[in-house]
Design goal:
elongated; 76% helix
Length: 87
């Protein structure tokens, strides 16, 4: 018999599974455990995501892209050249 637990309990169980997955991340994983975790995440989000949260997520994605681009640009400059321009 399937029972619905509270969102808090579901989040704790999901957090525990994600923590376990993070610990085991060094070892190659089959697709099945990853698929299971992603499915649970998507299921737990059902109806819980507001427009505001989607906007925030997009802004965070934009920020992450910006940071990655800056890292690439700094790496392309090289440490010696960057330090020479500062000093």
């Amino acid at each position: 018999m399937l029972t619905h637990s509270s969102p808090m309990v579901e989040q704790k169980l999901l957090r525990r599974r994600l923590d376990t997955a993070a610990i085991e991340a060094r070892a190659p994983r089959s697709r099945e455990p990853v698929f299971s975790i992603v499915s649970e995440i998507l299921t737990s989000m059902d109806g819980d995501v507001s427009r505001r949260e989607i906007k925030l997520y997009r802004e965070l994605e934009d920020l992450a892209r910006y940071i990655r681009r800056l890292k690439s640009e700094v790496a392309a400059l090289g440490a010696d050249r960057l330090l020479a321009s500062v000093g």
